[in-house]
Amino acid sequence: MRPLLPREVDGYLVELVKAQHADQVLTEMESRADELRFPIVGRAVGRFLELQARAIGARRVVELGSGYGYSAYWFARAVGEDGEVVCTDADPANARLAENYLRRAGLWAPVRYLVGDALAGLAEVDGELDVVYCDIDKDGYPGAWAAAAERLRVGGLFLCDNVLWDGRVAGLAPEGEPAEVAASRASVTDAIVAMSREIASDPRYVSSVVPIRDGVLVALRVA
Ligand SMILES: C[S@@+](CC[C@H](N)C(=O)[O-])C[C@H]1O[C@@H](n2cnc3c(N)ncnc32)[C@H](O)[C@@H]1O
Question: Strand runs (DSSP E) across 39-125, as ranges?
């Protein structure tokens, strides 16, 4: 994906995080994403997610769309062994890969991986949550927000990736994108914008979008 920030700036942010934290397993997870073009959040956003979770003392995190555990890696660091990171993903192969990577990284203890629809997984988890992190197929974003907004404690965070969608949310056409691809993505763009506007006008939440990589929405529940 083409970063919204100039490549050099994006690269600088990633290098800063690499200087703080090195792990062979993490590097392997990143190589897999490069080789298979699998859309992980990457270092700068991963560290940011960890920071957000640590900042509110999060103990209970639910991820909607976990892939093979790259974003969960950062949440597991934040909540510690006694915390809880519930991963969800439709693909059982991702669950197996996540367990393998996260065990090797010493981060599997707080993780529970539910295979199936992400919102069905969220419904299976009882009680109030500290963080819901959303990274499912983008047409599902409004539904994810509707399901998550009530589940977070006051002081909890809704975090959502790809909310700038390569600039499409602001009417920018990504470089070289064929017209038919742009047209097929219009409804997805609409879904991301609809969710973001709904969150921005929700009096229970204070929110902002941080424009690292493809944009991360942060919404803090205040009422
Ligand atoms: C962008 S990837 C997640 C990457 C992961 N958050 C990371 O950064 O490492 C999206 C994942 O969500 C899964 N997915 C998409 N929509 C889903 C849904 N509605 N229910 C369950 N899984 C879904 C896909 O199988 C895919 O693995």
Answer: 60-64, 84-89, 111-115
205 CA distance to ligand 1 centroid (A)?
25
Q: How do residues 92-138 score in pLDDT, each as one tens digit? A: 999 999 999 999 999 999 999 999 999 999 999 999 999 999 999 99
Q: What atom in ligand 1 is closest to the CA of residue 116?
A: 21
Q: Is residue 1 part of a domain?
A: no
- Lowest-confidence segment of 98-107, 108-117, 164-173, 196-205 by average pLDDT: 164-173
Specify the number of domains making up the chain: 1
Q: Which residue range is the domain that position 98 belongs to?
A: 7-221
Quote the ligand 1 centre to 112 CA distance (angstroms).
15
Regarding the beta carbon of 117 and ligand 1, being less than 6 Å apart is answered yes
CA of 65 to the centre of ligand 1 (A): 3
CATH assignment of the domain containing 31: 3.40.50.150
152 occurs within a structural domain? yes
Domain contains 48: yes
Give domain status of residue 19, yes or no: yes
Ligand 1 binding pocket includes 70 (Cβ within 6 Å): yes
User: From ligand 1's centre to the CA of 7, what distance in Å?
Assistant: 25
Position with higher pLDDT, 56 vs 184 = 56
Q: Residue 222: CB partners within 8 Å, gap ≥ 6?
A: 154, 155, 204, 205, 206
Q: Shortest CA distance to 86 belongs to which of 52, 133, 19?
A: 133
Nearest to 172 by CA among 154, 156, 185: 185
